[in-house]
Batch of 2 targets.
Target 1
Amino acid sequence: MIVCGEKKRPGGKLVKVCLNVEDGIVKGVLITGDFFVDPGEEFEKIIERLERIEVPIEYIEEEIRNAFMELNDRIFGIGIEEIIEATRKALNELNK
């Protein structure tokens, strides 16, 4: 099942997280929005790290924090908390 969540940062910046979840495991991740990462290849590595994580939000939050801390000074337009909040909203869609 594919679920998506969005978070708009004060000032207008938006991040959207879509997760493909099968049998309680994240099989695919797409993070889009009003931001950029330099270098972009590092962002792709982080997306790969987030795939195959078990669904409880605590696991995903921890992995997002760990992965994005490495990019914290190279991601522009959004922050880690916005990504986590958009991910929470996406996962809430699983319970509907």
Target 2
Amino acid sequence: MYVCGITPYDATHMGHAASYVAFDLLNRAWRDGRQHVAYVQNVTDIDDPLLERATATGVDWRDLAASQIKLFHTDMEALNVLSPDHYVGAVESIPEIVAAIEQLLHRGLAYRVAGSPGEPDGDVYYDVEAAGKHSVDEEAWTLGSVSGLTETAMLELFAERGGDPGRAGKRQAL
């Protein structure tokens, strides 16, 4: 069972508690039913909100992350939430992430868009159309086939949630 973990830039809140107690119940029910459960939870220990909070408070981002992760574990322990079998940090996963991106680029399933002067490395985007051509079942790669959303609705949500649909050089707005 994979459960999305925290971005450790601020104290644990009721939303965290509700999510992790719910998954704890599922974990316990499966285990009580003699199911094998491999419970994995990530920690997004590098992200814009964390870096912004560290800069605003004058604290090294690694120290801020460590203190908030410790607080989170203390809070989950107080709620009697079972710990995951594995915590996976974003920082420790960077080599694997880079390798996966390089593989997508090599296979033609991703492409680079040059950055602005303040962002010299640019960005890498997944090429949905290329993925559809590589897929045995092209329907699996049709945008909206899983969500049931139209492209217009997806574009609106993407823009509302911080996406960059108008980015120059992108092959597809989403």
